[in-house]
Write a structure and sequence with these properties.
alpha+beta; 204 residues; 7-stranded mixed beta sheet
Length: 204
């Protein structure tokens, strides 16, 4: 007998995993990244092989963690974090060039959630759990970056609301002085192109 999928009002639980438990969650996290990041503003045209390779960082790095949103055994959302010192050079460079010591900074990576389960407080839960992980590691500053897209972008949905207000309420400050560059292929592109991403930071 095939059971129906959980309803959007079913009970959601958050769980922070590391190591082997994180390894088991990587296929679901890869799926969610590909699904959610196709949406504006990231418009990311990803593939699972690349995702699984990229996400191994969250398994092998000391202090890294994945916060999972579950309904029973089903993973419907996830958020990641790790010491900034373990991130790619592209992510570290803006801080290093500004003369900022990165040894006590924790980087918050993706935060992805299926559409049916948004608006139920999980975004706040993701930040709370990651800040807890950062403090346990001994970090004194949390940071993440968000892609910059022009308001006139042709794929910007009607009624789109950026998350700046939400991040501000969580205590983060937009840092116009800290911008990194990453490359990926947009859903409307034939090849990868470089994007600018602005950092947000918060004292812990």
């Amino acid at each position: 007998m095939t059971l129906p999928p959980p309803t959007p009002r079913a009970k959601l639980e958050l769980e922070t995993v590391t190591g082997e438990e994180a390894q088991a969650a990587l296929p679901d996290l890869a799926r969610l990244r590909i699904e959610v990041f196709r949406e504006f503003p990231y418009l990311y045209d990803g593939d699972e092989a690349h995702e699984r390779d990229y996400l191994q960082t969250y398994v092998r790095v000391n202090g890294a963690a994945i916060v999972l949103a579950r309904i029973g055994e089903r993973i419907v959302g996830a958020a990641t974090c790790l010491p900034l010192s373990a991130e790619t050079q592209a992510v570290k460079t803006p801080f290093l060039e500004a003369g900022i010591d990165i040894s006590d900074i924790f980087y918050f990576g993706e935060s992805v959630l299926e559409k049916a389960y948004r608006g139920r407080g999980l975004g706040v839960g993701f930040f709370v759990a990651r800040e807890r992980q950062a403090r346990a590691y001994g970090a004194t500053l949390a940071a993440f970056c968000a892609v910059q897209r022009p308001a006139s972008h042709w794929l910007r949905p009607d009624g789109y609301q950026p998350l700046d207000g939400f991040w501000t309420k969580r205590g983060f400050t937009r840092r116009e002085d800290l911008v990194c560059q990453m490359s990926w292929r947009d859903v409307d592109e034939a090849a990868a192109s470089t994007k600018n991403l602005t950092f947000w930071t918060k004292r812990l």
